[in-house]
Amino acid sequence: MSSDNIQIHVLVSGIVQGVFFRTETQKTAKANNVTGWVKNLDDGSVEAVIEGKKENVNNVVDWCHKGSPAAFVSNVKATEQSALSNFDGFKIQ
Known about the structure:
Blueprint: E1 6-15, H1 21-31, E2 35-40, E3 46-52, H2 54-66, E4 72-81, E5 90-92
Parallel strand pairs: 2-5
Antiparallel strand pairs: 1-3, 1-4, 2-3
């Protein structure tokens, strides 16, 4: 990844576990050629770090506001961080 990449840390709350949210996030990330990871948190929310070209990252963050078909997203908190370029693909943790 090049140095003009951005990295966004995302916290998604609502009905986002048990509804294929992580799998669909991974598919969306791969379709947008970004790297990072997504995982469930103990409080029922989903956390992700998405890195890549700004437009591509924003596409995935925008998708997070909608989520998978069975999801109900009540809140998305997206925070830009320093891009590290140390991810190998986009993983589900």
